[in-house]
Amino acid sequence: MINKNFFFKGYRSIFTHDSPAIALTCCFIAIGALFKNLGFNIQESIFSTILTYALPGSLVMAESMLIGASLLNIFLAVWFVNARLYPMAVSLFPLMMHKSQPKWKYYFSCHFIAVSAWLIMKSNYKKIPKEHRIDYWIGIGSATVSVSVIGTFIGFSFSEYLNKDMMMGLAILNPVYFLCMMVGASKTIPVTLSVLLGTILGPLIYLFSPEWSILLAGVIGGTIAYLIGEHSVS
Amino acid sequence: MSANIVYAILVTSLATFLSRFLGALTSEGIKETSKVFKWFNCLAYATLAALIARTIIFPAGILVEVSYSSRFIVVVLSLAVFFVSNKNFVYPTIFSAICMALLSSFFK
After folding, report:
1. Given A116, A174, A189, B108, which is the most exposed site by the fewest CB atoms within 10 A?
2. pLDDT for A32-77, tens place per residue?
């Protein structure tokens, strides 16, 4: 089963001095308030946070519901926005694969792939023996989901006390937090270049193709960064 | 729970889980030292950076109502706080929320 020591080590990793817990809670406070304004009840809001656990996907669902989009439209829009989770999973799971661990742990814990958990794992995995990284990862994922649920509950419960200025403050918090984590993770040439090219290409491609901008910027920027990184090594 | 909302949540979670599950499934045969892994690592970072940049420059939702200059000022100052605080993630994040709330109330 799950190794408790490594599970709780992962769980505690979000309660450090530079923890993402506060930022993550604030982001989900904004989501909780948005859900209430959309007409969700508290059960639906928490159900959505637990099952989806991806901020951009939740925002797309909320916006799609506001304009009365069909379920097929919601599915396609969310799938496009969250397609970034595929390369994130492929660039994380090989670090945790170990033959002594059952496969169900990997299939179950892929649900925890999200920017904050992914960045925490990426910066800490070397400190954990490979055999137990999956337990550590499940700990991180459980902690970030718990914090997200608490944030959703607070946002839903106190939405009437949040004025427009406060909502704007909560809305900028998420991209700033992710931006700092990305800058902090830029320690090698390929990663630094990937971050730089993605930052430039994302908005640039958006001018021509809003729907495909994130995926195209990721593929083009990431591939150029990889090729330059390989060239500099050789 | 209303049926429409529940269906929307289920559809959203299915669309999200699909990418995660396919990623976990296909990464089984990939070694962390392989070129494919390094390439996907670059793709992941570039995609995330693109998402963040787009969210700040072409936002959806309530941030649309904030001017470009206000967003730019908040992001630059927050990055400055990040470096001054020895790359702490909490201070710039909280700072950004307070700074944005103040700017938006000041420039009404």
Report:
1. B108
2. 988 888 888 899 999 999 999 888 788 778 777 777 778 888 888 8
- Give per-residue pLDDT as tens, A171-228: 888 789 888 888 988 888 999 999 999 999 999 999 988 878 888 899 999 999 999 9
Check whether A108 has a pLDDT greater than 60.
yes
CB A102 within 8 A of CB A135: no
pLDDT of B1 over the 60 cut: no
Please tell me if residue A95 touches chain B, with a CB cutoff of 8 Å.
yes
Secondary structure (DSSP) of A20-50: SHHHHHHHHHHHHHHHHHHT--HHHHHHHHH
Does A231 contact chain B (CB < 8 Å)?
no
Q: Are A6 and A126 in contact (CB under 8 A)?
A: no
Write out chain B residues lying below 8 Å of A22, CB-based: 90, 93-94
- Min distance A60 CA to chain B CA atoms (Å): 9
ipTM of model:
0.86
- The residues spanned by each domain of chain A are 4-177, 186-234
Domain regions of chain B by residue span = 1-29, 31-61, 66-108
